[in-house]
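Quick question: what would this complex look like in 3D?
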Amino acid sequence: MKITGAELIIRALISEGVDCVFGYPGGAVLNIYDELYKFSAQIKHIATCHEQGAVHAADGYARVSGKVGVVIATSGPGATNLVTGIANAYLDSVPLVAITGNVACPFIGKDSFQEVDITGVTMPITKHNYIVKDVNRLGDVIHQAFAIARSGRPGPVLIDIPKDVQQCECEYVEYIHQPAPVATNGRSTLRKAAEQINDCKRPYIYIGGGVIKSNATEELLEFADRIDAPIGSSMMGLAAVPHDHPRFLGMTGMHGKYAASQILAESDLLIAIGTRFSDRATGNKTEFTKGKKVIHIDIDPSEIGKNIPAYVALLGDVKTVLQQLLAGVKQRNRPSWRQAVQAIKDSSDNRLEMPPDQLNPETVIKAVRRHASDDTVVCTDVGQHQMWTAQYYDFSRPRTFITSGGLGAMGFGMGAAIGACFGTGGRKTILFTSDGSFHMNMNELATAVSNQLPLVIVLLNNNALGMVRQWQAMFFEQRYSNTSLARRTDYVRLAEAMGAVGFKVDTLSQLEPALAKAFAETGPVLIEVTIDQDAKVLPMIPPNGTIHDIILKA
Amino acid sequence: MDNDEFVISMLVNNEAGVLTRVSGLFARRDFNIDSLSVGVTEQPGLSRITITAHGDDYLKDQIIKQLAKLQDVKVVKPMPFNNSVMRELLLIKVQADRDTRSALLEAASVFRAKVVDLKSDSIILEITGERSKCEAFIEYLRPYGIVELCRTGLTSISRGLKPLKDSKSFVEENSAKE
Ligand SMILES: Cc1ncc(C[n+]2csc(CCOP(=O)(O)OP(=O)(O)O)c2C)c(N)n1
Ligand SMILES: [Mg+2]
């Protein structure tokens, strides 16, 4: 059967199991959008307000569902608007396929209208990218792109398809999937790891986002019970372990829990699982592993030894490696280590609480949690509110915390929350944001309204680029350069003007009624909550510092 | 030759942009390389790239692992100095007049260089060899007045029957390790 390149794209997407894509039309993708029109029963297309919103939505969709997110954009400005979102997916290892149109092949290289070398631009921020100049290769390329995006350490792949290639006719052959080779571990390496674990005195399990991507919570908890070890988490690993699990210490690192970092420092064996030792999580890298051995489990061989030297490295999918390890590690009972851990957990330094009778980030986040259920997805933007969410929100299930980790991209939240709504089949979704980040992509509120998404936006308004302001307060003698922006935005009227519902909360007593009404809505709601401009994220371990440098009080 | 020098060979898909992917990786990961050579191979779709760099085991390990992640890189291996043939080609143009010409020709024969061009005021010599040989030759010629020189960068092939394409990938090798 002869079909056009554009139709082939849609058929290939359908055969990859795609039923929802995000994007924005334009001249170089007109043919693809024509096919989307014809295939609208099989594939739903969500048109956002801006391509950045679309790519963040595809990212959020992928994170909550575990499927590959798909975004489509036109050539030139459409393609360049994807760049931040692609980089974001790259740094957080999110499986994503971005499809861009380009000018027709004869026009390439002539600086034609809306021509940009997007494969050149995205080379350093994709796992791989393609420009397809021969329609007969198109099918293979699309299926390869999906295979690359989801295999090994997941990540984004971009396919640039010139307009004439979309129009050409070709034969479509159904594709047969071939599983990619996965690294496995020799018996002696596994034995060496098991020996270290069996023989150590103070083991510490340090998890990252890999545990969530590999759906390995069950194996992880069995492993922790078996070896009798506490669990700390990077920000990307949050929600992999329920907040109230007795072994869970919370987040480590720059704004992590005191106990999570202190106990890590006292351990003699660090078992790092699905994590890449980001500088935000480790602080000073030499001090981080002083006095301990490291067992590093990861699917990406290049992460082994990149930031932290590993005594034993175990390669592969976290779930599989944990199953292999479980076969070799002995049941252990370490009462003195457990006691030491408990003492640190109970210490006052580990209990930094904000006053419960005030309207502050902690009381707001805890109140929101009471209205949510265990499977409610929580998205954030970037800044103080993001850290407060990581610290104070009680996560119970994997894939319920969606945040921009590696890139730290303000503006991620609105797009991601939209994607999350679709990725969960319309479950209630919460976005914690603040004035700075919200202004970056607040246009996407219109997308949420068009689609009547069950989205509750909680805007912690500190009238500041709070996180930067905090650094200015702590490290720049309170010279607040360009961080108190004095916006006059009336968020309630803004929400209403865009077709959403808006509430403003200035006192603690207004909080509950507003939340009750907000959670009763079926469509998008924005709640602006006024908080103190000087509120700080604490504790804080300054960049490149250690637990000894931890700042507990403002 | 510095003792922290190493040589890495790889087979890559012969596609547009592959060299950009490889050199872009070096730039963004801050891997300094000393030379890079590239050319087609006996297999139609594959080119071979050889790079030399110097640094510690950490750098070497990261270069290999990061290169192995590029989809277009099919095989990447360090080339052992004691079991590989390594060669580089040097073309060097030197000032030469009646007084110096015979000394230059003598030097060429001692170094087993070829004379590829001779003019009344200049001579071009070609030499193939390991890096140290090329360097020694350059040093020897320096006093005569080097006009310009160009080098291809090192290329390398292992001794014995087994070709690079039959090397195990990182994943396979790790799985087999006992
Ligand atoms: C796109 C982008 N630009 C700049 C920054 C630097 N930055 C990090 S946090 C922050 C302030 C965020 O302000 P806001 O969204 O109001 O959050 P708050 O810290 O007040 O909670 C800025 C500017 C960033 N992370 N992303
Ligand atoms: Mg703010």
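Answer marked as accepted. Residues 9 and 57 of chain B are 16 Å apart (CA to CA).
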